[in-house]
Design brief:
Layout (H helix, E strand, L loop, with lengths): L1 H6 L3 E4 L13 H8 L3 E4 L4 H11 L3 H6 L3 H12 L7 E4 L5 H10 L18
Helix pairs in contact: 5-6
């Protein structure tokens, strides 16, 4: 939450898809965005979008993973920047995407600042 308050981005996006209503899951990123009055976005495709995305690309999800997730990261990129008003975006993703997604963003002339390469919660003791 400190990071979102300090940076105050226009959008807090995350590598997650919209949970099904029956799952009753709450996203921590969504809670933080709400408390900080920042727009929130689930950037990952849902199950149906994912199937269609890989069918269009002509590869499997496993093949995409082996290639470094170019199809999935392209989906994120398009979803994040479909909102033309978002100038500063705080994107939360897994460590295995940091380098490849940063390169994709930089290749499109976006400035990238990696805040934490592989965050883990503090150990209580």
């Amino acid at each position: 939450m400190e990071c979102a308050e300090k940076l105050h981005p226009d959008l807090l996006a995350e590598e997650a898809s919209q949970p099904e209503p029956k799952d009753h899951k709450m996203s921590v990123a969504r809670l933080v965005a709400g408390k900080c009055r920042i727009s929130h976005q689930f950037s990952d495709p849902d199950r149906h979008e994912r199937l269609a995305m890989y069918k269009r690309a002509g590869i499997s999800e496993e093949q995409d993973r082996l290639l470094g997730f170019p199809i999935r990261e392209e989906f994120w990129f398009n979803r994040i920047f479909e909102n033309a008003e978002a100038q500063a975006v705080l994107f939360i993703c897994g460590a295995c995407h940091i380098d490849s997604f940063s390169q994709k963003l930089q290749g499109a002339s976006y400035v990238v600042n990696v805040i934490e390469r592989d965050w883990s919660p503090p150990v209580e003791g």
